[in-house]
TrEMBL record:
<dbReference type="GO" id="GO:0005524">
    <property type="term" value="F:ATP binding"/>
</dbReference>
<feature type="domain" description="ABC transporter">
    <location>
        <begin position="4"/>
        <end position="229"/>
    </location>
</feature>
<dbReference type="InterPro" id="IPR003439">
    <property type="entry name" value="ABC_transporter-like_ATP-bd"/>
</dbReference>
<dbReference type="InterPro" id="IPR003593">
    <property type="entry name" value="AAA+_ATPase"/>
</dbReference>
<dbReference type="GO" id="GO:0016887">
    <property type="term" value="F:ATP hydrolysis activity"/>
</dbReference>
<keyword id="KW-0547">Nucleotide-binding</keyword>
<dbReference type="InterPro" id="IPR027417">
    <property type="entry name" value="P-loop_NTPase"/>
</dbReference>
<keyword id="KW-0067">ATP-binding</keyword>
<protein>
    <submittedName>
        <fullName>ABC transporter ATP-binding protein</fullName>
    </submittedName>
</protein>
<comment type="similarity">
    <text>Belongs to the ABC transporter superfamily.</text>
</comment>
<dbReference type="Pfam" id="PF00005">
    <property type="entry name" value="ABC_tran"/>
</dbReference>
<keyword id="KW-0813">Transport</keyword>
C-alpha cells in the first residue's frame, strides 16, 4: 500500500492555483524528495495531506486513510516537521520532548531523542534562547517521537549548519532503515540527491517529473556536464554552441576560458567541433555527471 497517494488534487486560493490536478504516489518504505521553486505548492501539498488545508478537488490518502475524513488516524501514524511551528520559550527542550512522549503515549527516552538531534548538552535550557538551527533540531526531535510510520518534513534543513544538515541526512536514512517512509520538501538539491530514493519536481502546482535521480537524468537527456579548456576565449563560437540541439547551461569562465556545457553524450563531438570553428585549440576536456542543480534548472526553465 502507498504511504501517500494523491489523486487529481487541486487547490485554489481565490485566484491563485497552488496545486493543479496533482497525481502522486509515495511508496511505503521509500525516501521521497519533493523539489520545487518558491511558491511551487510544496507546503500546500503537505498541508492538504495533514488536513491543515482543504483541497478544492481531488483526494489525498495516507496508508489508505482519507486525509480529510480520517485525519486523527492519519496524524497518529505521521511525524511532522512543519514549515512553521510554535515552541514555548519558557520551557526546556526536554520539557517539549517529554510532552510529546506523553501525548503520544510512548516510552521513548527523552535523553536519547535529544542526543540524536545534537541537543543533549542543552536539554535543560529554555528554548526561548535557542537559535533558529537549535529550534529546527528540536522540531525534528518532536517529529521523531514514537517512531512514526511516515515522516513528513517541510524544508527540514532550514537554519541548519553543515553538521546539522549531515545529522539530518543520517537520521533520514536511519528512519528509512527501520522501515519508515520519509517524505520531505527541499530547495537543497544536494540534500535530496544524497538521501532520496525518488524525487518529484513540482513547478507552478504541477508535478513535472517523478522518478529516481538516475531516471530523471535519463529523461532530461543531459547525462553529462562537459568542461572544455581552450587556448583562447571562445568569442562568437559560444553562441553557435548555444544554438546546438539539447545543449543547456552554456557558460564561459572569464579568467581561464573554460567552457561548461550540459549535453547528452551524443552531442559532445558537435560541441567541441563548434568551439574549434574560429581556430581555437582544445587543451583539455573533462566530463562529469549532471548534478541535480542542472536537472532542476532544465525542468523549471531556469537559465543555468
Ligand atoms: N493561505 C493562502 N492564501 C493564499 N495563497 C496562498 C496560501 N497559501 C499558499 N498560497 C499561495 O499558493 C502558492 C503555493 O504556495 P506554497 O507555500 O505551497 O509554495 P511552496 O512551494 O511551499 O513555496 P516555498 O518554497 O516558498 O515555501 C503560492 O502562490 C502562495 O502564494
Amino acid at each position: 500500500m502507498a504511504a501517500i497517494e494523491l489523486e487529481s488534487l487541486h487547490k485554489q486560493f481565490d485566484d491563485i492555483v497552488a496545486l493543479r490536478d496533482v497525481d502522486l504516489t509515495v511508496h511505503a518504505g521509500e525516501v521521497f524528495g519533493l523539489l520545487g521553486p518558491n511558491g511551487a505548492g510544496k507546503s500546500t501539498m503537505i498541508d492538504v495531506v495533514l488536513d491543515y488545508v482543504r483541497p478544492t478537488a481531488g483526494t489525498a490518502t495516507v496508508f489508505g486513510l482519507d486525509a480529510q475524513q480520517e485525519t486523527k488516524a492519519v496524524h497518529r501514524r505521521v511525524g511532522v516537521l512543519p514549515d512553521a511551528y510554535h515552541l514555548d520559550g519558557h520551557l526546556s527542550a526536554r520539557n517539549h520532548v517529554e510532552f510529546a512522549i506523553e501525548s503520544m503515549d510512548t516510552d521513548d527516552d527523552s535523553d536519547a531523542v535529544l542526543d540524536r538531534v545534537g541537543l543533549g548538552s542543552v536539554a535543560d535550557r529554555a528554548v526561548g534562547g535557542f537559535s533558529k538551527g537549535m529550534e529546527q533540531r528540536l522540531a525534528l526531535a518532536l517529529a521523531l517521537v514514537g517512531e512514526p510510520e511516515l515522516l513528513i518534513f517541510d524544508e527540514p534543513s532550514t537554519g541548519l549548519d553543515p553538521n546539522g544538515a549531515r545529522r539530518m541526512r543520517t537520521i533520514v536514512r536511519e528512519e528509512c532503515d527501520r522501515g519508515a517512509t520519509v517524505f520531505f520538501s527541499s530547495h537543497i538539491l544536494g540534500q535530496v540527491q544524497a538521501v532520496c530514493d525518488r524525487v518529484g519536481i513540482l513547478v507552478d502546482g504541477t508535478i513535472v517529473a517523478e522518478d529516481s535521480i538516475g531516471g530523471l537524468q535519463e529523461t532530461v537527456g543531459t547525462s553529462e556536464t562537459l568542461r572544455v579548456t581552450l587556448d583562447s576565449q571562445p568569442g562568437e563560437t559560444i553562441e553557435s554552441v548555444r544554438q546546438l540541439p539539447d545543449v543547456r547551461n552554456v557558460s564561459v569562465s572569464d579568467t581561464d576560458g573554460v567552457v561548461s556545457v550540459s549535453c547528452p553524450a551524443r552531442q559532445k563531438v558537435a560541441v567541441i567541433d563548434t568551439l574549434r570553428q574560429n581556430g581555437a585549440s582544445v587543451l583539455d576536456i573533462e566530463t562529469s555527471e549532471v548534478s541535480l542543480d542542472e536537472l532542476f534548472a532544465a525542468y523549471t526553465g531556469a537559465d543555468g
